[in-house]
């Protein structure tokens, strides 16, 4: 287990802002694509005059004259019903490049100080590794889980807490000022400017790093008190041997979040559960003997498929291409050597074929199962969740 580093600070980060670094930041932003910000400048438009844009951006970052624009507020569905929506902040392209420059400078500094049980938005780490760690602790005899949910983490994170942790490791005033400018840039929502006195907008390039920097405090606090935990960004669980220990963990986490980060736990979503009762983590349902695709994840998958397979549209190669992207992405995430998703995948495969037959015949009828056989859909190039799962099982030598 790594230990926290000492109080040694890093100086002169501004001097590391070079044309090569700025260009690399631009390449990262371009690879991730994304929509335009409030200035309506797209990736393609920014690239049209790339050299001049990057040169001006670098000068402003180094000369302390850089001013970020407010992020453009958009809302995306939070669940399959579409009734609950999650707010995102889309920065301008130039601001995304600037944030990526900061991320490239700060990430190597803090990566050395992050806890081993933190898996979110870190190089070489993934959701799967986080779930595998939970399974490992389950096998080690932990029977109770504190399934914690932070209320509006990104919207309520204390700027003071973030800047306190940054200034504890970074002595470059220009870099600290730039981070604070991004935190306070505000958002444009429906044409109205809203200042951001707390929180960091979801959608910002540097936001995941700032989240890890803030919650790293909680990680080490839990270890100092003898608790095992697994965290992926703001989603974390604390593993315990008994219910009393889980209650102590709940009190500890609640007090620490309130006093140090200005955050609270959601009383509706935070719970203490036994492993045999089950709980959800990163899209999976975990119990004592299995790890399955959670019901909400299945509904989200169906929502994506419904949008592609509207009955009023024609079934053609483009539909199959779009559908295969969704199928492959779902299989890549849920078909693992340690998950048990065979039943779910078989059910979803049948449901997809039903949607496609309805799309082709403009009706829902079991007779169409014989008129449009599975062989025909496969000849069109349709992928199968079950077949993709078997490929994972064969390569791992383990049933899923």
Textual characterization of the structure:
- The protein has helices spanning 19-32, 43-48, 50-62, 93-111, 127-139, 153-156, 159-169, 173-183, 207-224, 243-261, 295-308, 317-334, 342-361, 368-371, 374-379, 385-396; strands at residues 71-77, 85-90, 144-149, 187-189, 192-194, 228-232, 235-240, 271-274, 279-281, 284-286, 291-293.
- It is an alpha+beta fold.
- The strands form 3 sheets. Strands 2-1-4-5 form a 4-stranded mixed β-sheet, with no helix packed on it.
- A hairpin with a 7-residue loop joins strand 1 and strand 2.
- The chain is globular, with a radius of gyration of 24 Å.
- It starts with 18 loop residues before the first helix and ends with a helix.
- 32% of the residues are buried.
- The model has no long low-confidence stretch (mean pLDDT 90).
Question: How would you briefly describe this protein structure?
Answer:
With 400 residues, this protein is of the alpha+beta class.
Q: Helical region count? A: 16
Structural class: alpha+beta
User: What average pLDDT do the residues reach?
Assistant: 90
Structural shape: globular
Strand order of the largest sheet: 2-1-4-5
Strand content: 5-15%
Element-by-element helix/strand order: HHHEEHHEHHHEEHEEHEEEEHHHHHH
For the secondary structure, the number of strands is: 11
Distance between the termini: 31 Å
Low-confidence stretches: none
Helix percentage: 40-55%
Largest sheet: 4 strands, mixed
| Quaternary form | single chain
Radius of gyration (CA) equals 24 Å
């Amino acid at each position: 287990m790594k230990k926290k580093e000492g109080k040694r600070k890093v100086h002169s980060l501004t001097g590391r802002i070079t044309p090569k670094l700025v260009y690399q930041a631009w390449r990262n932003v371009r690879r991730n694509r994304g929509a335009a910000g409030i200035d309506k400048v797209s990736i393609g438009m920014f690239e049209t005059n790339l050299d001049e844009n990057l040169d001006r951006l670098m000068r402003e970052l180094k000369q302390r004259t850089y001013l970020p624009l407010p992020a453009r507020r958009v809302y995306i569905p939070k669940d399959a019903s579409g009734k609950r929506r999650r707010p995102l902040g889309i920065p301008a392209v130039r601001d995304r490049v600037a944030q990526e420059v900061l991320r490239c400078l700060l990430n190597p500094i803090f990566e050395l100080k992050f806890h081993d049980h933190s898996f979110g938005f870190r190089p070489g780490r993934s959701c799967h590794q986080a779930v595998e760690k939970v399974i490992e602790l389950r096998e080690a005899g932990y029977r109770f889980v504190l399934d914690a949910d932070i209320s509006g983490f990104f919207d309520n994170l204390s700027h003071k807490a973030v800047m306190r942790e940054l200034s504890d490791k970074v002595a470059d005033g220009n870099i600290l000022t730039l981070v604070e400018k991004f935190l306070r840039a505000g958002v444009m929502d429906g044409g109205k400017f809203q200042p951001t006195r707390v929180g960091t907008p979801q959608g910002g390039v540097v936001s995941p790093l700032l989240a890890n920097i803030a919650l790293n405090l909680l990680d080490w606090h839990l270890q100092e008190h003898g608790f095992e935990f697994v965290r992926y960004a703001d989603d974390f669980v604390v593993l315990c041997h008994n219910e009393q220990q889980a209650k102590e963990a709940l009190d500890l986490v609640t007090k620490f979040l309130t006093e140090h980060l200005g955050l609270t736990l959601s009383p509706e979503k935070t719970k203490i559960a036994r492993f045999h009762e089950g709980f959800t983590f990163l899209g999976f349902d975990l119990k004592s003997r299995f790890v399955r695709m959670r019901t909400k994840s299945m509904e989200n998958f169906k929502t994506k498929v419904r949008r592609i397979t509207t009955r009023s549209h024609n079934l053609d190669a483009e539909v199959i291409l779009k559908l295969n992207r969704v199928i492959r992405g779902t299989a890549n995430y849920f078909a693992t050597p340690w998950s048990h998703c065979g039943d779910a995948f078989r059910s979803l495969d049948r449901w997809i074929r039903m949607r496609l037959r309805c799309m082709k015949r403009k009706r829902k009828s079991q007779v169409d199962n014989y008129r449009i056989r599975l062989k025909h859909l496969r000849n069109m190039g349709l992928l199968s969740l079950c077949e993709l799962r078997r490929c994972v099982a064969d390569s791992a030598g383990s049933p899923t």
